[in-house]
Amino acid sequence: MTGRRLGKGGLIDRGRPLSFRFDGREIQGFAGDTLASALVASGVGVVARSFKYHRPRGLWANWAEDPNALFDVALDGVTRPNVHGATTVLEDGMELRSVNAWPSVRRDLKAGLDLFHRFLPAGFYYKAFMWPDWHLFEPSIRRMAGMGRVEPGEPGTPALNRHDRCDLLVVGGGLAGLTAARAAAEAGQDVVLVEDHPVAGGALHGFGGTVDGLTGAEWAAAQIAAIRAAGGRVMCATTATGIYDHRLVTLVTAAPFAQAPRLCRMRADRIVLATGAVDRPLVFDGNDRPGVMSPFAALDLLGRQAVLVGSRIALLHPQPEPVAARLEAAGASVSIHDPAAERLRVKGRKAVTGLCVAGCRHGCDTILAAAGSTPLVNLWCHAGGKLDWVEASFVPGEGPEGLSVIGAARGTSDDDAIREEARQAALGAALPPRGRPASGLLPNPLRGRAWVDLQNDVTTDDIALAARENFTSVEHLKRYTTLGMGTDQGRNSNVNGLALMAQHLGRTVPEVGTTKFRPPYVPVPLELYGGTRTGALNHAPKRLVLEPQHRALDAALGEYGGWLRPAWYARTEHAGRADEAVAREVLRTRQVAGILDASPLGKIEVMGPDAGAFLNFVYYNTMATLEPGRVRYGFMLTERGAVYDDGVLARLGPDHFVVSCSSSHVVGVMQHLEAWRQDGHDPDRIHVHDATQAWATVTVTGPRARDIVSDLGVGVDLRACAFPHMAIREGRFRSAPARVSRVSFTGELSFEISVPLDRARILWSAALAVGAPMGSGPLGMEALSILRAEKGFVIIGQDTTGDTMPHDLGFAGPRDRKTEPYVGDHGLQMEVARDPDRLQLVGLQVLDHAPKLARGAHLVRGAASGRPVSEGYVTSSYDSPTLLRPIALALLARGHTRMGEAVTVWHMGELRTARVVPACAIDPEGGRMNA
Amino acid sequence: MQRFTCPFCGLRDEREFSFAGESGKTRPDTAAEVSDADWSAYLFTGTNPRGRTDEIWVHTPCQEYFRMIRDTVTMEVLETVPLRRDPS
Predict the structure, then answer these.
(1) Residue B21 with chain A: CB contacts under 8 Å
(2) Nearest by CB to B65, which of A678, A819, A820?
(3) What is the ipTM of this complex?
């Protein structure tokens, strides 16, 4: 190919030259060029090497359907792999590196692979590299294949996302789309027109001529002005990449190179698709050589970028005259040949030197070859539209409501017919009957190497091989040969591939069928869908009202159950020795008192005349007998009988309860309660309200807790005789309501004091100030974890699995005795619930005095035989500062019956021995917390 | 992405909703004898029809459960009604 830039015409700005480099070579382009058009304009013929055989390739098309021109591009420190050359706007200073070629596309060292093509048919690696093990070959095959190179550590840029709606979305800004959008806008509809090129006008630029006495560019600009004047919106450089349920359309707007594209999720009441058509490649010997090109691409390059692709052009086209006339007018000599002729063959390797027709050679530098046209029906099919096979093309058939296809995408080629269709579609009227599309040619299985899919190097031989080996279903054909799996998504290759398969099978093309069309229509970066939802914007932890106070105490903050909470305090003082900080907090709590911010604890209010019966139903434990002023520990189960949450239920009055579920389960428990309230009970007699974030809770826990709390002035008689363990009292703190409950997660005497948020700071500071002279101090989450594990208290989800049932944790009473129905009741009676081999909660004591066990380590039998079998695993493991030895909790098969037994613990190939002990390692009688 | 009409809040994106179950499933009365087969059917067996379905969904922001009649082939939403009202 010997492309050159013409002195006039086109949409480029000759006053703004741009320079860039391609494989080190300095090249000039103009504003208005794409990467591909600038290369062709400077006479570059070979733009890439093919994926598998490393054959030299030139530009096939001038837009998204081009399968060849992919580059790794760097600009201003930003590098992107596999940039699509025919759609990417050229910018000054770009550095292009050809993919899949080294050292350059003209002298690629791996080009020799092509000589071995006989041994590299479709799926060759499945056959040749299976023995002795595919994994031996996989790394080198993967290095050989693939395209561009991702720069490690290349930061992404956030893609802006927005949502929008309109009455009518028109996709495609050619003759059809512009006519439809203008008609609809002038009829008063809220219209959005999207056009994927930077400049609208579609095929008008390529074919030249005039519309209503204006050039294509002038006419398109006039239509856009009219649409905008009528209140419509026009988005250029914007591609509709997919249609999803209920007419959601994703619109992707291109951005300058270093920025991420923008995504608009558009809801349209109606959609008109005017997506046009592309040339269908002609399948003949050597049709992948650089210089063999889509005829329309040559016209489009001429019209948009003023590039003439060759001076001596051989044209193979079912309707050659308009193409030939346009190219000749631009200064090329054009010879027309019959595309249906037998024995067509390309001469030349890295550039076309001639075309052989039935043995007769015709000299040329460019071959423009098409077998017909392929309507772009991808979006139609995304939305569930069906296809009809007419004149060797798939055109839209039956379709969903609210969606219509007009213009070349419908197979209509006459300009007046297109404009009539567009006006009807704009108003939602029925379209005129479809004319017959221009006829096309279908390929024959022929001798020689003829390409069906350029990007994935699929030849006619590969289709024949797939047919021979019975990969005849279109979806199998696609996956076996990789036909249509490239960036063009089969726009070039599908019809030819299906037609060849149909001939091998002796069926018609519609009988063979098409593969499923799926979004996105063009490749888009994944960051587009993420948008700005990364890091804390994606997952924002909940923040404590006391966070400034924790920071003032130099807390190490971590996420616990969705909340940012203090892990331990005095971070700087214990830098690098966090375990010392944690141990100090544990011992302080056991010896004096710890002061904990427990605000995330669930506080779901349940009220109403049926509240008691309702809670008795949703809890495993009997809650009907809970008296006002008392608190009871209990489980909520799933209907399968598995433990979903544990927590305490407090009864404030006859019809008023507070569900204090785990901090991390508030949202889930709330949904669980609402589901049963609304769908299973009388919702008028029960009210459920999540008040978790309306209260702050400060827990004072330890032997001196009562001394500290009595100095805080909470208006509650704290004496054990008046306020026993598992009770709740309502008092007042600084003239605000306060709820004080005696519930212990540490095994120590504890008071949980909840106050409105605006009293939190003063309560926290007062508790610290009162406790400090006694030797108490703040308590973080890590120390709390150890305190509760020493006591054998479980964390649901850490010490349980999704199968753990309450009797596995030692709570079998309600299963055996509770008579009223409750959620999960029959689940506990099923065979699986009674399996004697169930995993049960136990404690473990290591016998070798070595460090603590690894969490997740397996408890195994048969280790001596060398084939250990797991019987459970360690769920929690700590060095206990209180006991001065490691402690662990575990789930172990039949664990409750195995107290005292020595078990083998396996971790990463290492074996240790532990003794099964009760889960509770401290104060099993409960004297401390009942004090 | 689909759009559903919450009977209380109006038309919203699918992402605001969660499926809660098929309509018309009643919990076996566990105060009486329940066979394992009945319990399994209650927990695990759905009719999963092709075409018109009658389901219970929840609109997460308002936490209201409601009935939705929709078509699983065309994705058309035929009706959404509060739980305590019958569909037309």
Answers:
(1) 679
(2) A678
(3) 0.96
